[in-house]
Every structure is written in structure tokens, then in C-alpha cells.
Specification:
This protein has 289 residues and is an all-alpha fold. The chain contains 11 helices and no strands. The longest helix has 37 residues.
Length: 289
């Protein structure tokens, strides 16, 4: 039997119970849940309308009326951070979905076929990986213009080779195993073996990598918005809030402080969540405890 832990071999309840015994997972889960809850609530309610400009309230410091203060247009910063969380999560989630949806099949196909197909796919993978998300966004923006959709495409393209590498590496470690040889002897083809045996045994690797890429996707979205290639005004974005705050750091440091903390805590929570999942799903680490 494979040394890898297949998620299908354990019930979801037992995996979750083990995960909540990990301090990293618990802290990461709490931080991530807070951001996700804040983003979910923003669909239905925010303290103030983020598209409404109230010049008389501009540049107000944090107070009971405006917890995080107001910006140079009089918009409530806390409301903007809530909506910005929704946008960051949406962009990162779709981008990770694109990367996983295309990269995992390519990586599994390369591992299953081997030979020149594997070599060709991996060299093409290296070519795509050579272009970071920011550079891809610049090229896409030059053709189609800036916007959240183009940011999603750029980050998603960057994620494809990442997931392809992880899937290929995990699959290559599974193919020599005895149960794969038994499946071949029973007449199963490469595609059926990949679906029934390989994917369940590398699901843990993909899940952990997904949380890591999700965190990186939020950072990438903030970076793209900071340089004007992500979400466009009046749609709030954490990166855009940092850009608007850079010329007002002396008189209103809170304008950069709160969106910066939002990015840091979100990325920290997702990374801790990924570490906790890795500890939980890795049988070797579990045996060392």
C-alpha cells in the first residue's frame, strides 16, 4: 500500500479532528475565518457606502463613527477593507482554480506518459513559469486594458506551472508503487489509474499547495492593484488603498496601516493553515509525534 496518505482513506471528521490539534491550523483557521466572514458580510452590509464620496468627512482619524478613519474622499476605511477582502478572495480563488484546473491535469499527464511528452510539457511549463504574474499582467493589460478580470488571468496563468510541477512530482512517486502495477495488470489504462489511484494519493499535496497559492494570489492581487493593473476605482482594493496612502503617510499613517495589516494577517492565516494541513496530512510527520 502507498506510504502517501490518501484523503479518501480517512473520514473527513477524523482529518478535521487531527487538524484542530495543530496550533498552526487553529490560528490560521481563525484568521482566515475572520477575513472570510468579513468578506461575506460585505455582500449584504457595510457600515458606509464605499462608492459614496463625503468630502466633509475626508481624512478623519479613527473614531467611534469611523473605526479605521476615512480616506481623502471621505470614504470609510473599514467598509473599504471589508469590500477589498471580498475582491482579494474572489481574485485569488478563481486564479487558484484556473491554476489547479489546468496545471494538475498537465502534471498528471506528463507523469503518466513520460518520455518526450513529459519533457515537452515540462519545458513549456518552465517557459510559462519564467513570466511572473506582474509581467504577465503588464502584457495582458497592454492588450486588453487594466481590470480585475485581467489580474485573475495573469495570476491564474502563473499558477498553472506551479500546480503542474507539484502534480507531476507527486504522481511520479506514486506510479512505481505495487498497487499501481496491480491496477495495470488488471487492464486499467493510464487515465483510469490516474483518476482512481494517483489523484487520491496526491490530493494532500495539492490541498496544501492550494492554500499557499491562495495566499500568494492575494499578495499578487494587492501588488497588481498597487501599480494600477488590478481592480479599478471606485471598486476598493487593499493594494489600491496602499497606493493612495503613500503620499499621505506623514499626516495620516492609518491609511496604510489598516490595509497593510489586512494583507499581512490574511497571508499569515493562510500560510499557517497550510502548515497545519501539511502536518495533519503527512503520515511521516504524524508518526514522529
Amino acid at each position: 500500500m502507498s506510504d502517501q496518505l490518501s484523503i479518501t482513506q480517512d473520514s473527513f471528521g477524523s482529518i478535521l479532528a487531527r487538524a484542530f490539534r495543530s496550533r498552526s491550523f487553529v490560528i490560521g483557521f481563525i484568521l482566515t475565518a475572520i477575513v472570510a466572514l468579513m468578506a461575506g458580510i460585505s455582500f449584504f452590509w457595510t457600515p458606509y457606502d464605499v462608492t459614496k464620496l463625503i468630502v466633509s468627512d475626508r481624512m478623519q482619524p479613527p473614531s467611534a463613527a469611523h473605526w479605521f478613519g476615512t480616506d481623502h474622499f471621505g470614504r470609510d476605511n473599514f467598509s473599504m477593507i471589508m469590500v477589498g477582502a471580498r475582491n482579494s478572495i474572489a481574485v485569488a480563488l478563481v486564479a487558484v482554480g484556473i491554476g489547479m484546473g489546468l496545471g494538475v491535469p498537465l502534471g498528471c499527464w506528463a507523469a503518466a506518459c513520460g518520455g518526450w511528452i513529459d519533457e515537452t510539457l515540462m519545458r513549456f511549463n518552465d517557459l510559462v513559469f519564467a513570466f511572473p504574474a506582474l509581467l504577465s499582467a503588464v502584457m495582458i493589460t497592454a492588450i486588453f486594458g487594466p481590470g480585475a478580470i485581467n489580474a485573475i488571468i495573469a495570476i491564474g496563468i502563473f499558477n498553472i506551472p506551479v500546480f503542474a510541477r507539484v502534480a507531476r512530482g507527486g504522481a511520479l512517486s506514486i506510479w512505481p508503487r505495487e498497487f499501481i502495477l496491480a491496477a495495470r495488470a488488471s487492464g486499467k489504462g493510464p487515465m483510469l489509474i490516474t483518476i482512481e489511484h494517483v489523484l487520491p494519493n496526491i490530493a494532500n499535496l495539492l490541498l496544501v499547495q492550494g492554500t499557499i497559492q491562495f495566499a500568494l494570489g492575494i499578495l499578487a492581487e494587492a501588488g497588481l492593484s498597487y501599480v494600477g493593473l488590478g481592480a479599478q476605482p471606485p471598486m476598493p482594493s487593499w493594494g489600491r488603498m496602499l497606493f493612495d496612502a503613500q503620499t499621505r503617510m506623514v499626516v495620516a499613517p492609518y491609511l496604510a496601516l489598516f490595509p497593510g495589516f489586512a494583507i499581512v494577517l490574511t497571508v499569515l492565516g493562510l500560510n499557517l493553515l497550510g502548515d497545519g494541513l501539511s502536518d495533519t496530512l503527512d503520515p511521516k510527520l504524524r508518526r514522529q509525534r
